[in-house]
Design a protein that fits this description.
Blueprint (H helix, E strand, L loop, with lengths): L1 H10 L4 H17 L10 H13 L5 E5 L24 H18 L3 E6 L8 H17 L3 E8 L6 H9 L3 E8 L4 H4 L13 H13 L4 E8 L6 H13 L7 E5 L17 H14 L3 E2 L16 E4 L4 E3 L11 E4 L3 E2 L6 H4 L7 H4 L4 H4 L4 H6 L15 H15 L6 E2 L2
Parallel strand pairs: 1-2, 1-8, 2-3, 3-4, 4-5, 5-6, 7-12
Antiparallel strand pairs: 8-9, 9-10, 10-11
Length: 417
């Protein structure tokens, strides 16, 4: 594969010396990314050993907390619709903090990372503020680092809230979601504040700038499915966002799919991973962005690591945030601890090396079997839900190689996908 990329580089250069430099550069990128390895290495055994070693110890405690599952938007594909509305009570808030401390003591980890989700988490921003202060005091007492992120629709963000996210809640990053030109149709208001005169989409754009003034990074995800997956239109929409001051480096395409239960009904509108990958690559090429080749990793998802939990407003604990609202996927409660019988053992023990199609796939170091939740619930129709790059292995790397050949020694625009 490296030779093929080098041949592509030589074909694009008339200068033999320049071609050699480009070829060496491509080889260096592939080697540093783990795509070119020594012939005597058993990569599968190395990955397997690394994966089990990582699952046997806690790198950090990771809590995904939903202070409310209520939302002011009515997105057709959202899992939040199935969950009871309401806010996390003071008693549950206190129990969540105690649950966090018990895990700090058990894990002996060096850091705690909190992701605030919903519903729409900013509808309960007072809870986020209060709990953030309590958890930060715990981290200081246990000499642990603390950081946080938030996933929000952006409609309720104000300058005061954005500043408090940084100064009070220690939120470092945020994700905003937008659905293209039809954003207001696909994500209609459930309850629009009287003071909001602008469109829902404009609220997202405004939120980007409000949050960007205080946070380290604000990503903008464009949800993509069969209904809005026209590549030319997606390219135009990205340029539209850039024209409104959003950095091209933070705009990316998001794959929308259903996991279990009612959300799987959305599968009729979902693209396959292969279809999504093709459109994503076309989208990146049209924007003159070189996709980053993802190197080897030791886990398919951070949610299969120890001390990684999702907590809903009622205090129930799940392994994955896509499991919120499903009683048969609950693994515990913050007031009583984890259940003796874990209903998600198959999720936690998911190992792509046990699957013949995964084990023999050249992309297993990058993919690691894809989404465990999709694989173990059967939503993937008996197949692992692969990383989109798998379906475009040759085209993807060739695209990177051609880009490096034409850009080297300058640094090309890079997009992590």
């Amino acid at each position: 594969m490296a030779d093929a990329l080098c041949r592509s580089g030589r074909a694009s250069s008339e200068n033999p010396f320049e071609a050699k430099v480009q070829c060496d550069y491509v080889r260096e990128i592939l080697h540093s990314g783990g795509f070119v390895i020594e012939a005597d290495r058993d990569e599968i055994e190395e990955l397997k050993a690394g994966m089990y070693a990582q699952r046997s110890k806690a790198r950090q405690i990771s809590l995904t907390i939903a202070p409310t599952m209520d939302c002011n938007l009515a997105c057709s594909y959202c899992y939040a619709a199935r969950n009871p509305k309401g806010r996390m009570s003071p008693a549950i808030q206190k129990a969540v903090v105690q649950f966090a401390e018990s895990n700090m003591i058990a894990a002996q980890a060096k850091s705690l990372f909190v992701t605030w989700i919903g519903g729409e988490p900013t509808m309960a921003f007072d809870i986020i503020s209060d709990m953030s202060g309590e958890v930060q005091r715990l981290c200081a007492a246990h000499e642990m680092e603390y950081s946080a992120s938030v996933v929000t629709n952006g409609t309720l963000v104000t300058a005061e809230m954005a500043k408090a996210m940084r100064d009070v809640c220690r939120v470092r990053t945020a994700q905003l979601t937008i659905d293209g030109y039809d954003h207001d149709v696909r994500r209609p208001w459930r309850s629009k504040p009287a003071e909001h005169k602008q469109s829902c989409m404009q609220c997202v754009i405004d939120a980007y700038h409000l949050l960007g003034a205080y946070l380290e990074r604000v990503a903008v995800r464009i949800n993509v499915d069969c209904k809005n997956g026209n590549v030319a239109e997606l390219v135009r929409f990205a340029k539209y966002l850039e024209g409104h001051g959003i950095s091209p480096d933070v705009i990316y395409l998001g794959y929308v799919h259903g996991i279990i239960g009612e959300s799987r009904a959305y599968a009729d509108y979902s693209l396959t991973r292969q279809e999504f990958a093709k459109r994503e690559l076309q989208w990146l090429k049209a924007r003159n962005i070189i996709p980053t080749v993802l190197g080897p990793r030791l886990t398919p998802c951070t949610h299969v690591e120890p001390y990684c939990y999702t907590i809903d407003p009622e205090g129930y604990v799940s392994r994955c945030w896509d499991y919120i609202g499903y009683p048969d996927k609950r693994v515990g409660h913050v007031t009583t601890g984890l259940f003796k019988n874990d209903p998600c053992k198959d999720f936690m023990s998911y190992a792509p090396f046990e699957r013949k199609d995964c084990r023999e796939c050249v992309w297993i170091p990058t993919c690691m079997g894809g989404c465990p939740a999709l694989a173990v619930t059967g939503a993937a129709s008996g197949r692992a839900t692969c990383h989109t790059a798998k379906f475009l292995a040759d085209e993807w790397l060739r695209s990177v190689g051609e880009g490096l050949s034409s850009k080297q020694p300058e640094t090309p625009a890079i997009c992590t996908v």
